[in-house]
Amino acid sequence: MTVVAVALHRYLSGPKTASLSQPLKWSLTLGAYVVGTGLAFIAMPVSGDAMKMPADLVLTFRALSLAGLEVQPKTGFETNCCGQDEALDYLCSVRSAW
User: Fold this and answer.
1) pLDDT of res. 61
2) Which spans in the chain are helix H?
3) What is the mean pLDDT of residues 1-10?
4) Model pTM score
């Protein structure tokens, strides 16, 4: 959906629509994105697997997930792969930047 919105905005920014103001172009793009996302949400089938989860379990999972995004443990990945391959060196540099 995002790709479609970006493509629409690029089209609206082209020479064929030069008479439109920039705020109008952004509004049309945002409106198309909201409508498209809403239609996709409505078109999705209902999940037949109803599950009941305790709220404390869900909250704990969310808190640990957020903490995992903030605190990345050192796994030794950097020392195990660096210097072996160009692609692996790139992955090591990306992992080290975390």
Assistant:
1) 84
2) 2-12, 22-43, 55-70, 77-81, 86-97
3) 83
4) 0.46
Q: Are 12 and 29 in contact (CB under 8 A)?
A: yes
CA–CA separation, 43 and 64 (whole Å) = 32
Would 21 be classed as within a structural domain? yes
Question: In this model, does residue 21 exceed pLDDT 60?
Answer: yes
Q: Is residue 9 part of a domain?
A: yes
Domain containing 13 equals 2-43
Burial of 29 (0-12, 13-18, 19+ CB in 10 A): buried
CB 81 within 8 A of CB 71: no
Looking at the domain assignment, is residue 33 inside a domain? yes
In a domain, 35, yes or no: yes
Number of domains present in the structure of the chain: 1
What single letter denotes the amino acid at residue 5?
A: A
What pLDDT sits at residue 43?
93
pLDDT at 95 over 70: no
